[in-house]
Amino acid sequence: MLMRTDPFRELDRLTQQFFGSTGTVTRPAAMPMDAYRSGHEYVVQFDLPGVAPESIDLNVERNMLTVKAERHPDYADGADVQVSERPRGVFSRQLFLGEALDADNIKAHYDAGVLTLRIPVAEQAKPRRIAITGGREAKQINA
């Protein structure tokens, strides 16, 4: 099971809703995410348009997955910027990976601005059949 943690996301949304956008983004918007289970793995996709693959950093520590990415401006330092609406800076997102997931075997792929993580379900968490004994076998054991 996956759980997301971003304690300031809701506060940012409410602040933007109440005060409106000023055109200056001091804290970049959170990276949008989709997560779903497909068979024996979870698939998590993050939208990171305009982010260079080498600026993406993935870490797992004590079942906490951290995704960090940085998006730099495309214009030169001395440019006279007229409009700046696209979020830039460091983006960060954390997911708690439950004990039922195999954090040692996560696979990551980045293509067309989408980071896709495939997180397998741990072997001990997969459903399995349990043999049932009974009838004559049970009587022989108890005899």
Automatic annotation (TrEMBL):
Keyword line: Stress response
CDD domains: ACD_sHsps-like (cd06464)
InterPro entries xrefs: A-crystallin/Hsp20_dom, HSP20-like_chaperone, Small_HSP
Sequence ranges assigned to domain SHSP in this UniProt record: 24-135
Family assignment from sequence similarity: Belongs to the small heat shock protein (HSP20) family.
Protein name (database record): Heat shock protein 20
Species of provenance: Amycolatopsis methanolica 239
TM ranges: none
Gene that this sequence comes from: hsp18
Gene3D superfamilies, per the entry: 2.60.40.790
PROSITE patterns named among the record's database cross-references: SHSP (PS01031)
Glycoprotein listed as a keyword: no
Domain of life the protein comes from: Bacteria
